[in-house]
Design brief:
Blueprint lengths: L5 E7 L2 H11 L10 H16 L4 H19 L1 H11 L6 E7 L2 E5 L4 E5 L3 E6 L3 E8 L2 E8 L5 H11 L6
Antiparallel strand pairs: 1-2, 2-3, 3-4, 5-6, 6-7
Helix pairs in contact: 1-4, 2-3
Organism: Litorilituus lipolyticus
Protein name: YcxB family protein
Keywords: Membrane, Transmembrane, Transmembrane helix
Length: 167
């Protein structure tokens, strides 16, 4: 008979949890390449304003789009956390069960299971794990905080990471 492992814990989807999720799993970088589109829009708007006879409103609109794009990149984290806090799931309790089949998350609003067979990669971060998994043809990711996991659950996740392809 196979030895089965099952670990259950719960946590609250609060601002601290959402902030940790973002900081540990975000791929947004603040460099020149990230701001390229915003800079192009702003320069193009200035060019229209200064060197063409086009209505100034159109130029200011393009300049405003460039500035708005810059702000959306710069404030990406607080905006993402704010949107999560506005969701109906905010401040609700989530129960997570990790077993030999996968990771089950249950709350009042949602119930999802990530099977280990669907997992493409598990990336260990300083404060948790980012699990990359397939949903149809798409690759999704989910974050698990080490603060809510027992040492045995972390060992199970790390043992499963050995069976999936590494980056």
């Amino acid at each position: 008979m196979a030895d089965t492992h099952s670990f259950t814990s719960s946590f609250v989807l609060d601002k601290a949890h959402f902030t940790e999720c973002y900081t540990q799993s975000s791929t947004v970088e603040h460099n020149r390449k990230t701001y390229f589109k915003a800079n192009i829009l702003t320069v193009f708007g200035l060019f229209i304003l200064l060197f063409t006879p086009v209505n100034g409103y159109a130029a200011w609109f393009v300049i405003s789009l460039g500035l708005l794009e810059s702000l959306s990149i710069y404030y990406h984290q607080p905006w993402w956390v704010f949107r999560q806090m506005l969701s109906k799931a905010a401040n609700s309790e989530v129960t997570i069960t990790i077993d030999d089949d996968g990771v089950l998350t249950e709350s009042f609003y949602d119930k999802r299971k990530i099977l280990w067979l669907d997992v493409n990669q598990i990336k260990a971060t300083e404060l948790g794990y980012v699990i990359f998994f397939s949903v149809g043809k798409n690759i999704s990711r989910s974050y698990l905080s080490k603060a809510t996991l027992s040492a045995q659950a972390q060992t199970l996740i790390e043992s499963q990471a050995g069976f999936v392809s590494a980056d």
